[in-house]
Amino acid sequence: MSAALIFLSKILIELFGLASLFLVLLGLPGLWVIVALSLALPWIGGSWSDVGILFGAAALAEVLEFGASLGLARKSGAGKSGLAGAFVGGLAGAILGTSFLPPLGTLLGAALGSFGAAAISERMLAKRTHGESFKVGFGAFVGTVFGRVLKVWLGVFQVVWLAWAMWF
Question: Which residue of 5, 11, 108, 117 is surrounded by the most CB atoms within 10 Å?
């Protein structure tokens, strides 16, 4: 490959990597797009170990996002019904929120959906008091926001690592 083509490839990969962070805000698999982009690294200046690090960061982000959301709901006293409600409500809220105000609506929709569905599930199915249900819902809300923030930060790490691996 010519030097100009390699240079252009690096620029395009980094631009697509930055755009993928926007996908993360929408609740889409932007971190995995960055991993897919990194598959070009061995041919343009990086290595397979860089690809592995980016893959590991994406996998860690998924675990942390899921764990934070359900973990804080669990820590707030959620039972199985509250955890299921937080999960389903988060998905439904993200879809609805995206249609109204992307990307902020996606995050708010997911957080409010987790809150509402966890609280309602705990109140209706687990027969918890209003206060206990609210506490579980609030835990799900905070966990969803915290998990998404962690995921975005790991995405920023990925984009920086991708650039470093290509250029230095």
Answer: 117
Question: How many domains does the chain divide into?
Answer: 1
- How far is it, in rounded angstroms, from Cα 151 to Cα 14? 18
3-state SS record for 88-157: HHHHHHHHHHHHHCCCHHHHHHHHHHHHHHHHHHHHHCCCCCHHHHHHHHHHHHHHHHHHHHHHHHHHHH
Residue 159: alpha-carbon gap to chain centroid: 15
Q: Indicate the length of the chain as a whole number.
A: 168
Range of the domain at 104: 3-167
What is the spatial distance between Cα 45 and Cα 52, in angstroms, rounded to a whole number? 15
| Whole-number pLDDT of residue 165 | 95
pTM of this prediction?
0.83
What's the mean pLDDT when you consider all of the chain? 92
The answer, yes or no, to whether residue 27 has pLDDT greater than 90, is: no
